[in-house]
Specification:
The longest helix has 34 residues. The protein folds into two domains: 191 residues, MFS general substrate transporter like domains (Growth Hormone, Chain: A); 201 residues, MFS general substrate transporter like domains (Growth Hormone, Chain: A, Up-down Bundle). Helix 9 packs across helix 16 and helix 10 runs parallel beside helix 16. By secondary structure, it is mainly α.
Length: 421
């Protein structure tokens, strides 16, 4: 039954996530061709992020209240209906920009509910011993969709009518919904919700549930330390990598689009390598220590992004340098994401997991645009090759501090155990 759960989870999520990724990429190209406006294209990208930030806290409450089977399978079923309606509409009239925007928003709202639901369901799908494996598998699916989505989406858009893609998406979501329906969402009996808790939740408002999740999160010292590490990492990536790296490659080094694409493809390849090896690594290094070490590694990798410009490396060496940096960052990100999710699933009571997880996701993602804007504004005020190192200073110092603190706490725990014996 456990292996059947893993298979159904993997197949259902793979079809759902890949279908969303293919459609999101292809519809962006369609909007660009329809309007010829980069601003409208950027709007489609923003509409993929905003619903998640706004809806996540509510989705977390709903995930804690309702059956995971109905939530996970139901969201894919609703997405299937959404695309079926969009396909029927496209037969009788051309898809307009407002219709596309509405569809993108609805897709991302439903996908946010699906994502929170499937993440909070994972601890009950398998035994505690296989929780790392299913988290690794989940991250592998996300990473693969990051690579394959744009590739397949670009090919499909070039050779297939957009209506056929919409119909394909509807069928894919329906297949995903059916496979997810047969998952045993209560396989791990120790993770089941108690009936009296479910009844006590019925009379509580959504706001009070969100506040309850916030109180648990803000009052838990261990989770706060975890959050600040994750928060620092996302700010680091947004400030030191997402803006300076493309700017240096395209505007300073003047690389061709093919070389830029090659460098970008290294990151998801690193993610895939990381997800395939993270289970082996996590069995040998304590979760929190691994998380801190990877933050230090990413800080170092981010800080050297401007090095080819400072040292005046030739284009071939710069290309190889950035490919290696992106692969290492991708591997390190996978070594962060899986431990973070495993720690949350182990330390947060299941009846609160949806609320706590969604709050952390919202807070982290909400600050990402701030990091992007600050980094973008500084590119016109200081040498861009110095920005990555400047952004890496605080995360590096904080991670070193946490590494020493973690080592001290473990030493004290060992001494306490020896004394008690």
């Amino acid at each position: 039954m456990e292996n059947r759960n893993i298979y159904l989870f993997a197949s259902g999520k793979a079809v759902s996530i890949l279908g969303s990724s293919i459609f999101s990429f292809a519809i962006g190209l369609y909007v660009l061709k329809l309007t010829g406006s980069a601003l409208n294209y950027a709007m489609t990208l923003m509409l993929s992020v905003i619903p998640m930030v706004v809806i996540s806290p509510i989705a977390g409450v709903i995930a804690d209240r309702v059956s995971k089977k109905w939530l996970v399978s139901g969201m894919d079923f609703i997405n299937s209906i959404l695309f079926a309606a969009l396909f029927i509409l496209s037969i009788y009239r051309e898809l307009t920009l407002p219709v596309i925007y509405i569809a993108i928003v609805l897709l991302n709202v439903f996908t946010t509910f699906f994502g929170i639901g499937i993440e909070t369901a994972k601890p009950a799908l398998v035994s505690s011993e296989k929780l790392i494996r299913i988290n690794s598998l989940s991250k592998l699916i996300d990473s693969s969709a990051t690579v394959l989505g744009p590739v397949i989406g670009g090919v499909v858009y070039a050779f297939v009518d957009i209506r056929a893609l919409i119909l394909f998406s509807s069928i894919a979501f329906m297949i995903s919904a059916v496979s997810e329906w047969f998952i045993d969402y209560e396989f791990n009996l120790e993770r089941r919700l108690y009936e009296n808790h479910e009844k006590s939740e019925e009379n509580k408002s959504i706001l009070s549930d969100i506040i309850e999740g916030w109180k648990f999160f803000s009052g838990n010292r261990s989770l706060l330390q975890l959050f600040f590490l994750f928060f620092m990492l996302n700010m680091l990536i947004g400030f030191s990598v997402n803006v300076p790296l493309p700017y240096i490659i395209n505007e300073v080094l003047r690389f061709s689009s093919s070389r830029f694409g090659m460098i970008n493809s290294m990151f998801p390849i690193g993610l895939i390598i990381g997800t395939l090896t993270v289970e082996y690594v996590m069995k040998r290094i304590e979760f929190r220590k691994l998380l801190i070490l990877m933050n230090i590694l990413i800080s170092i990798m981010a800080s050297v992004i401007g090095l080819p410009v400072i040292l005046g490396l030739d284009s071939g060496m710069s290309l190889a340098f950035y490919c290696i940096v992106n692969i290492i960052i991708g591997i390190a990100i996978a070594y962060v994401d899986v431990p973070v999710m495993t720690i949350l699933q182990n330390e947060v009571p299941r009846e609160l997991l949806g609320r706590v997880l969604s709050l952390i996701m919202s807070l982290v993602k909400a600050m990402l645009p701030v990091a992007l804007l600050c980094s973008g504004a500084l590119t016109s005020r200081m040498p861009v090759q110095l920005i990555p190192a400047a952004g890496a200073v605080i995360p590096f110092i904080y991670s070193i501090f946490m590494l020493k603190k973690n080592s001290t706490e473990r030493l004290l725990n060992k001494e306490t155990d020896c004394i008690s014996i």
